[in-house]
Specification:
Elements lengths: L27 H8 L5 H15 L3 E2 L3 H6 L4 H13 L4 E3 L7 E3 L14
Antiparallel strand pairs: 1-3, 2-3
Length: 117
C-alpha cells in the first residue's frame, strides 16, 4: 500500500487531564487476550485502560469523547464490551445508565488499584 493511502497522525490539543502520553501499568496478558477477540475489542481495551489510568480508578465509564479518540462507535463499543465480559476481561454493570460502568479485574479476581505517584 503506498504511503499516501495511509492515515496520517495529526497531533491535536487535549485538555490537561488527558495530556498523559502513556498508559500506566498495562498488563500484557490482558491486552493479548483482548487482541485475540474479534471486532474492535483491542481498541476498547486500550480506551478502558487509558481512562482508568488517567482517573486512577479500576471502575470507569467510556464516554463519547473517549470512544471517538480511540475510533470506536457506540454499537461497536457495546459489542466489544459484551465479548470482553464473556472472556472474563472486564465486569460491566449495565444498570439503568446509558453508559455501563466497567471494572477492570486483576488476575487474582480483585479490582485493580492505581497508586498515586
Amino acid at each position: 500500500m503506498p504511503d499516501r493511502d495511509l492515515p496520517r497522525y495529526v497531533p491535536r490539543a487535549t485538555p490537561p487531564l488527558y495530556a498523559s502520553p502513556s498508559i500506566r501499568a498495562v498488563r500484557l496478558d490482558w491486552v493479548e487476550c483482548a487482541a485475540h477477540l474479534s471486532g474492535k475489542c483491542l481498541h476498547v481495551a486500550m480506551a478502558l485502560w487509558w481512562i482508568a489510568s488517567v482517573h486512577r480508578k479500576a471502575s470507569v465509564r467510556l464516554m463519547a469523547g473517549t470512544l471517538r479518540r480511540f475510533n470506536v462507535t457506540e454499537d461497536t463499543h457495546r459489542e466489544a464490551l459484551g465479548r470482553m465480559e464473556r472472556a472474563g476481561l472486564i465486569r460491566a454493570d449495565d444498570g439503568s445508565d446509558a453508559r455501563p460502568r466497567v471494572t477492570l479485574p486483576d488476575v487474582l479476581g480483585r479490582s485493580l488499584r492505581f497508586q498515586r505517584d
